[in-house]
Amino acid sequence: xxxxxxxxxxxxxxxxxxxxxxxxxxxxxxxxxxxxxxxxxxxxxxxxxxxxxxxxxxxxxxxxxxxxxxxxxxxxxxxxxxxxxxxxxxxxxxxxxxxxxxxxxxxxxxxxxxxxxxxxxxxxxxxxxxxxxxxxxxxxxxxxxxxxxxxxxxxxxxxxxxxxxxxxxxxxxxxxxxxxxxxxxxxxxxxxxxxxxxxxxxxxxxxxxxxxxxxxxxxxxxxxxxxxxxxxxxxxxxxxxxxxxxxxxxxxxxxxxxxxxxxxxxxxxxxxxxxxxxxxxxxxx
Amino acid sequence: xxxxxxxxxxxxxxxxxxxxxxxxxxxxxxxxxxxxxxxxxxxxxxxxxxxxxxxxxxxxxxxxxxxxxxxxxxxxxxxxxxxxxxxxxxxxxxxxxxxxxxxxxxxxxxxxxxxxxxxxxxxxxxxxxxxxxxxxxxxxxxxxxxxxxxxxxxxxxxxxxxxxxxxxxxxxxxxxxxxxxxxxxxxxxxxxxxxxxxxxxxxxxxxxxxxxxxxxxxxxxxxxxxxxxxxxxxxxxxxxxxxxxxxxxxxxxxxxxxxxxxxxxxxxxxxxxxxxxxxxxxxxxxxxxxxxxxxxxxxxxxxxxxxxxxxxxxxxxxxxxxxxxxxxxxxxxxxxxxxxxxxxxxxxxxxxxxxxxxxxxxxxxxxxx
Lengths: 285, 369
Hints:
The complex is a heterodimer.
Chain A: H1 7-34, H2 38-43, H3 56-63, H4 75-105, H5 111-120, H6 126-140, H7 146-169, H8 175-182, H9 187-195, H10 200-216, H11 219-224, H12 232-241, H13 249-282
Chain B: E1 4-12, E2 18-27, E3 32-36, H1 43-51, E4 58-63, E5 66-67, E6 78-81, H2 93-103, H3 108-121, H4 137-151, E7 155-159, H5 167-184, E8 187-192, H6 195-201, E9 204-209, E10 212-217, H7 219-224, H8 229-234, E11 241-250, E12 253-259, E13 264-268, H9 273-276, E14 283-288, E15 293-294, H10 296-299, E16 306-310, E17 313-316, E18 321-327, E19 330-336, E20 347-352, E21 358-360
Parallel strand pairs in B: 3-8, 3-9, 6-7, 7-8
Antiparallel strand pairs in B: 1-2, 1-4, 4-5, 9-10, 11-12, 11-14, 12-13, 14-21, 15-20, 16-20, 17-18, 18-19
């Protein structure tokens, strides 16, 4: 391909640029709007840049915006979400790793059936478990708490994480486990010293997936944690739907971006390691 | 080092398939046992059962005087080399070799000494700090052997260790394994599907098929006196010719009648007449190895039966040329001296050395004589 700018190639680039624009435009509008003052928003065009860059909306969104009758901004709910997501991601990933290790390397009678059942867990719609889960959390005394939400997400996430790790470990030759057993290593030694060190890529995949799922979850948050314990997704909804006084688009936009930042951050940081992990594993002798 | 005995060992899976149907094998201390057979014959299952990675359904396995049926792999005092090498990917070569010793809580100084000794023996000292992914296939193979050697076990188990190497390296490593065995006098059980590896390495060979040991003996015994059609065809390359033929009276005994499109010859049989009298006039399978049908110069002996045959195809291999003819409507391979070989389409005088010929029952495929 000597002629790099053939018509076909131009068409491809044009199409890509169009699609990229389509995806970036909402983000652009959100960002610019969040830095405008209310007056600026009313006078200007949706696509125009702010006349003066103003961080007031961000400060208000973080610390003093009203969600329902509370007026403490997103701050508290942001930390609620962190307190919910981090333990839930870590616990469900670890359980998934051990589960995947067992169903791929230590098959026992009924292990395939167990795995199939776990797999079915991936397809259960959230709505189906709402009422029984509410009942269960009530019995456990975890209703309306962050710990309760962590439990729900761990249970729900385990199906996915098990699937991820199982599918990863079936590609690892089981002769590794056999070699470990002959060398005298036990169940946990083989797991921690032989398999975990090569599981980097799948850990990253799992963490990205679980973090996104749990951070962005709205339904479980709105049902199982009200008021003080509610996660940021629920708070954002309440903020946007609070209908007293003037509609503060700039504050809404800033809050939405605050709510989305952690997942973006995880993608940017971990995504790079993900690609690195994949290519490192791909170098075969 | 220790002896190994396998008594009437069976393996039945939960779904009812019999993988092993009563295996009896015993070898002495220091012997090199080969388990050979086509894929699915149960040889790897048997090896896994010796290692303790698979349960035994019935029967006994003894290492030395110890019955090991219910011992876990780590308590059997064995080491294993795997087909995929199974090197721990995250560990350096040094850690790979020392891992088993560490788990057994050997003192650090002792471990270091062992690792260095083994590395020196296998000439991998310069590789000790590399990761397995930075090694070539042959180097990985050495490290896998080093890991087994470091443990100094009673029995070494090899599971098709050379099948992932290219042809040239395979021959080199084969010699090295044999050298290692001669030096260490270790007891080895070696699984392969390659009959050349079986012949070249083994003191004792167990030829397996369908979960049954078809024949157990020294390589030469198995080559010269195969117990049945399967063993005769499996061991030897090119494999033995099987010619359907009728047993007839011949001067001084019995013979088999063999025809080419040029004519027929009766090949006298070396076997006892009494053994074969029931087969007179009946069809048998006449087994003769390619090197026993050759040209007059290579045959080197007078008075052997001979016949002019129509050459169909020739395959020069270098040291000798394989000649394909058709006898009794069956393709037959003969091994001749390269300069004596005729061209396809020509007639060539072939000399039959029947002293090692064997006969099989065409129905049961069991050796008759």
